[in-house]
């Protein structure tokens, strides 16, 4: 049970830094308990479980790991916690961005170094509500994942690539995943090694690598590489809500398009994802006018 500590170089918010890795409530691969963050992963060395806890009294973050992937996880702990990230690279051009950074000085961009771990749930989130995608992720991991190493048996490690390929069509259907999304996942896991190579590439090259797979477009690639690379410029394009939130926060206008969002974020070139994340943290969003989109369930069809 190896242990490693890390000392943040400045203000640090553990839960907002790592919270983006959580795929909804009840995520079988991510949990928070007594202030500790638990994460179950499938690393290149095998399954591993990581427990991370902030210790404000002495300014340290302490991590413990279990399983064949334990050493791999601890070796990359500083990158996961954002040591290689540079929040100061962003120059605030709007008051709302300045204020969000002032209120949340400890938020960094996590870098997992793992592609499929973020790619598969991002594919599940295509063109459906978050609740539908989170439900699919929970059902698939609980049924086809493996128990995570370590003392907490509630956690599950996602299947290895062959395990994803062996999930029968009716299990995807039962989880509410249509053929378009399941086919994209199956194509990705067939070339899992090529996908994982993207974790060592620059953003543009990694995006090209991921989007070479039919069914994986710019939206999915950005959502993946924000987490895999901790990429500060991986702005999500094609999202139903993000342009409207960014446009309303920066201009007070509704109905902003992707093109208009990119124009508004042009002063943050190189840091557009970080700027968007700070805007989201500000909490400023257009008031809801229509009922929430109903949750579908193809498993009932």
Give a description of the structure.
- With 301 residues, this protein is α+β, with helices and mostly antiparallel strands.
- The strands form 2 sheets. It has a 5-stranded antiparallel sheet. Strands 6-7 form a two-stranded antiparallel sheet.
- The protein contains 15 helices and 7 strands.
- Helix 4 crosses helix 15 (272-282), helix 5 packs antiparallel against helix 9 and helix 13 crosses helix 14 (258-264).
SSE layout:
Elements: E1 3-6, H1 14-18, E2 30-33, E3 36-43, E4 46-55, E5 60-66, H2 70-75, H3 77-81, H4 95-103, H5 116-124, H6 130-144, E6 146-147, E7 156-157, H7 161-165, H8 169-174, H9 179-190, H10 192-196, H11 203-211, H12 218-228, H13 242-251, H14 258-264, H15 272-282
Antiparallel strand pairs: 1-5, 2-3, 3-4, 4-5, 6-7
């Amino acid at each position: 049970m190896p242990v490693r500590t890390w000392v943040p170089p400045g203000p640090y918010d553990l839960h907002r830094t790592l919270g983006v890795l959580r795929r909804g409530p009840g995520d079988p691969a991510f949990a928070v308990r007594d202030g500790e963050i638990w994460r179950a992963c499938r690393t290149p060395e095998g399954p591993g479980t990581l427990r991370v806890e902030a210790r404000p009294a002495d300014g340290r973050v302490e991590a413990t790991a279990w399983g064949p992937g334990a050493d791999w996880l601890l070796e990359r702990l500083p990158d996961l916690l954002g040591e290689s990230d540079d929040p100061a690279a962003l120059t605030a051009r709007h008051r709302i961005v300045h204020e969000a950074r002032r209120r949340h000085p400890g938020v960094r961009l996590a870098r997992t170094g793992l592609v499929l771990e973020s790619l598969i749930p991002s594919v599940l989130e295509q063109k459906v509500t978050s609740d539908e995608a989170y439900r699919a992720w929970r059902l698939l991991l609980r049924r086809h994942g493996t128990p995570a190493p370590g003392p907490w048996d509630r956690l599950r490690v996602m299947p290895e690539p062959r395990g994803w390929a062996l999930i029968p069509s009716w299990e995807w259907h039962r989880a509410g995943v249509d053929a378009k999304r399941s086919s994209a996942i199956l194509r990705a896991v067939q070339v899992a090694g090529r996908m994982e190579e993207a974790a060592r590439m620059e953003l543009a090259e990694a995006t090209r690598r991921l989007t070479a797979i039919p069914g994986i477009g710019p939206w999915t690639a950005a959502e993946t590489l924000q987490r895999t690379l901790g990429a500060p410029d991986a702005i999500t394009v094609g999202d139903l809500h993000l342009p409207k939130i960014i446009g309303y926060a920066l201009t007070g206008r509704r109905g902003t398009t992707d093109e208009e969002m990119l124009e508004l974020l042009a002063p943050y070139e190189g840091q557009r994802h970080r700027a968007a994340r700070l805007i989201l943290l500000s909490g400023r969003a257009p008031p809801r006018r229509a009922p929430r989109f109903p949750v579908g369930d193809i498993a009932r069809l």
